[in-house]
Amino acid sequence: MKKRFFSTMSILLIALACFAEGKAKYVFYFIGDGMGVNQVNAAETYLGALEGRIGIKELCFPSFPYVGLINTQSATNGVTDSAAGGTALASGNKTKNGALGVLKDLETPVTSIAHWAKDAGAAVGVTTSVSIDHATPAAFYSHVAKRGMTYEIGAQLPTSGFDFFGGSDFVKPQNPDGGPDLYAQAQAAGYTIARGYKDYQKKAKKADKMILFQPEEASKVEVGSIPYALDRTKNDLTLQDITRAAINFLMKKQSEKDGFFLMVEGGKIDWACHANDPAFISELIDMDNAVKVAYEFYQQHPDETLIVISADHETGGLVLGRGPYELNLKAVSYQRMSMDKLNRELNNMKKNLGEKFTWDETKKFLTENFGFWNGVEVNDDQAKRLENSFNEFKEGKGDAGRLSGTVKRVISECALIGWQSGGHSNGYVPAFAIGVGAEQFHGRFDNTEIPKKMAKAAGWEVK
User: What is the pTM of this model?
Assistant: First the structure.
């Protein structure tokens, strides 16, 4: 009798412990593409510099209580690309660079945590600030040997059955066989397509499944992404909008689903770092603003929510310091546009001004938009390089990219930051976590462990 009593009590205590520990009902997975440790440090140090002091001003997600360092190499390369990195983060499997959702044999498909969540009865959202068929979001729903198979990737989106997608657009929507395009295929699979946040608000109530894209006017300028934070206008779709819409829609599915999984990618941190463009700082801060939307949700559901932030790789080999033991990140605050927009603006100036397209006019433009010769001190060598690049562009010996390239190098020099390359590196990337199961994300571990740890926290079966 006594033995049975202790056995019953043991079972009860175990059950109570499990109940007290709880499971993550709502799981957020933020991926800062190209976001290494130094990118995060640069953004916080920049914010500190804006307050006139040495040190950092904390962002939201780097202040989360659990922090880890992540290894990122792929199955075949010491330096991963976004496809292999995304596959590892999504499925817990290493693969060959360039492959999505398959093993390194390029044939064997693997499922992602988004599928594990769906199979467990959760609502699922996959979102990004770039195109929805780009490498990182595609790793959560597609299975292709080459990431360049953009149409094929997009065609697999409707077959996933996920509840919500968000991004700039499809890059290659037209059917090469002449059949229905990707928009029509998605609609046939039950997806409602909204163009912009206001359109989402109009359509969401009656929609069963949803795709949120930017307005068509924005896609005519850049179909592959929503605008850089620096270039944004009031009518542009933002990563905050996408995150807010996704939460709203996935919560709407609660009547028929059990919790949700939401992946949000800050994709243009990577793009800016590939370009060695200091605009990466505003992109990282912009992703932090999207995390704040999830954090507000966490504060309302602290015993049921897990938020994890990590990255697929570091981009650019960013270094904070160029020799002198100093930094001048405040110089970045004078930058008013990305290098992409600068290229467009320079081409427009050359076309519209004709003979009036002079160095004096361009110098004035650079002062207004990058702070040169005003808030940012430019030395004689830098000024000469800028003028020479302008002359080459005006005379047709180089395109706008040659001048914008000099501009971005001068900004980095003045800010005292350095770049090793225009590609990826094998530098550690960080992981930050808060909420149910967040204690797992502490120490050093491989990128393949992240989705498995998240699934453990949520009680989803790894497949």
Answer: 0.94
| Chain centroid to CA 320 | 22
Sole residue written with tokens 């990826």: 424
Q: Which two tokens stand for residue 96?
A: 């060959």
What is the token pair recorded at 258?
A: 């059990």
Q: Is 68 helix (H, G, I), strand (E, B) or coil?
A: strand
- Contact call for residues 279 and 335 (beta carbons, < 8 A): yes
Q: How far apart are CA 273 and CA 318, in angstroms?
A: 8
* 407 vs 52: CA distance, rounded Å: 25
- Give the chain's radius of gyration (CA, Å): 24
For 334-403, the DSSP string reads G--S-HHHHHHHHHHHHHHHGGG--HHHHHHHHHHHH-BTTTB---HHHHHHHHHHHHHHHTTSS-HHHH
- 350-377 residue pLDDT tens: 999 999 999 999 999 999 999 999 999 9
Q: What is the pLDDT of residue 21?
A: 59
Boundaries of every domain in the chain:
24-320+421-458, 329-415
- What does the mean pLDDT of the chain come to? 95
Q: Are 274 and 404 in contact (CB under 8 A)?
A: no
How far is C-alpha 175 from the chain's CA centre?
28
- Give pLDDT tens digits for 225-280: 999 999 999 999 999 999 999 999 999 987 788 999 999 999 999 999 999 999 99
24-320+421-458: which CATH architecture? Answer: 3-Layer(aba) Sandwich (3.40)
356, 353, 369: which is closest to 410 by C-alpha? 369
